[in-house]
């Protein structure tokens, strides 16, 4: 787009070069490539097999430790389209997703950063995250929050490798160049509360303990641990009702202080798809990174079929048509992070229903194995 579509006269070409020497730019040559008719996505739809990731993550456990400097032992998802553009640590242009490994006895030292972080627990038990003095034990399917600028470290009291998904708004903040980071002077930040404090306080789901600690404007969330048990119960009740046509039985993790997304910039969802369910296709400006918690099926993204099974990760880029299908005999559960809170706060979110409901499948994605 842009200049390639035009044939400039040699005289005009020379003029472009002449003004560029003064750090001035010719708008007419550039505008179509930047103020595009609709989102011009360079993040591509993509899918990573869990078997590929898991093997590499475990291997990284033999090669590196989560010490100061590197801080965390994580293998992250690199969107091929963004990698080609030299955009670091990006699953989409706003979202980072990684798989973190902690081995028994290890500590990932305490630090804080302005990037918000969420965790979704994949495998293992008896490891914990401490967030501002609250020690949170991690179990499969739990959702854990590390709000921006909160001290956090990870430790492991169990006997098996512990793995979880990290979701952070790293690429967005890198684009804005607004990062702050600080290591805590010691490996561990002092624990101030009983284990799983906030999950116990908010166990009622729709009730807040009297005198709950609340940040300014309700932010950050005073709930840190959202257990799978509560999540499962909420999904089961919800699925007694009618499903959302595009998203199935879908819940967003929220900040109980203000009812907004659990992290102010990272949206986090859990979706349940009943066997045979085939959602309606739609597209929106916000992008998402999905993790298949359980089940088997496929997602059609811009006409390409991405088959998935438990553990896999896939990306839905901005403004990409997508629909989900559960082909298994059991429920499918999809966890995802998205940048919808940012798009909504900036007034940029838009959504469109697919004109015929379902897309024609024109390609089948072949994942690397
Ligand atoms: O656990 O604090 O995947 O700081 C990337 C950066 C995890 C963490 C990541 C981080 C962390």
TrEMBL record:
Segments forming domain Cupin type-2: 99-166, 270-337
Name assigned to this protein: Cupin 2 conserved barrel domain protein
Keywords, ordered alphabetically: Dioxygenase, Oxidoreductase
Keyword hit for Repeat: no
CDD domains per UniProt: cupin_GDO-like_C, cupin_GDO-like_N
GO molecular function ontology, one term from the record: dioxygenase activity
Alphabetical list of SUPFAM superfamilies matching this protein: RmlC-like cupins
Family matches, as PANTHER family: 1,2-DIOXYGENASE PROTEIN-RELATED, CUPIN
UniProt keyword annotation of Repeat present: no
InterPro entries per UniProt: Cupin_2, GDO-like, RmlC-like_jellyroll, RmlC_Cupin_sf
Classification via Gene3D superfamilies: Jelly Rolls (2.60.120.10)
Source species: Kyrpidia tusciae (strain DSM 2912 / NBRC 15312 / T2) (Bacillus tusciae)
């Amino acid at each position: 787009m842009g200049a390639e579509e035009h044939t400039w006269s040699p005289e005009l070409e020379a003029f472009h070069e002449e003004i560029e020497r003064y750090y001035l730019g010719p708008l007419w040559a550039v505008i179509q490539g930047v103020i595009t008719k609709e989102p011009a996505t360079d993040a591509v739809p993509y899918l990573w097999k869990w078997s590929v990731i898991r093997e590499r993550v475990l291997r990284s456990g033999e090669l590196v430790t989560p010490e100061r400097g590197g801080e965390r032992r994580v293998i992250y998802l690199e969107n091929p389209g963004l990698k080609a553009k030299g955009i670091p640590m990006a699953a989409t242009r706003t979202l980072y997703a990684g798989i973190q490994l902690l081995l028994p006895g290890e500590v990932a030292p305490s630090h804080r950063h302005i990037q918000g972080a969420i965790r979704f627990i994949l495998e293992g038990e008896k490891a914990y995250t401490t967030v501002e003095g609250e020690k949170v034990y991690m179990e499969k399917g739990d959702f854990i929050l590390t709000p921006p600028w909160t001290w956090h470290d990870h430790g492991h009291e169990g006997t098996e490798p512990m793995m979880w998904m990290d979701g952070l708004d790293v690429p967005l903040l890198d684009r804005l160049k607004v990062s702050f980071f600080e290591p805590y002077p010691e490996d561990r930040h002092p624990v101030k509360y009983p284990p799983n404090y906030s999950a116990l306080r908010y166990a009622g789901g729709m009730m807040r303990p009297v005198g709950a600690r609340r940040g300014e404007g309700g932010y950050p969330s005073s709930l840190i641990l959202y257990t799978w048990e509560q999540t499962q119960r909420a999904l089961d009740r919800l699925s007694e009702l009618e499903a959302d046509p595009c998203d199935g039985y879908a819940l967003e993790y929220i900040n109980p202080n203000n009812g907004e997304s659990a992290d102010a910039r990272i949206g986090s969802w859990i979706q349940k798809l009943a066997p045979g369910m085939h959602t309606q296709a739609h597209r929106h400006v916000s992008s998402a990174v999905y993790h298949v918690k359980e089940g088997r099926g496929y997602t059609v993204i811009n006409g390409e079929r991405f088959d998935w099974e438990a553990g896999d990760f896939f990306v839905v880029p901005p403004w990409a048509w997508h629909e989900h299908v559960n082909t298994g005999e059991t429920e499918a559960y999809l966890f995802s992070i998205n940048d919808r809170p940012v798009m909504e706060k900036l007034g940029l979110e838009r959504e469109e229903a697919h004109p015929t409901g379902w897309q024609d499948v024109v390609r089948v994605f072949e994942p690397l194995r």
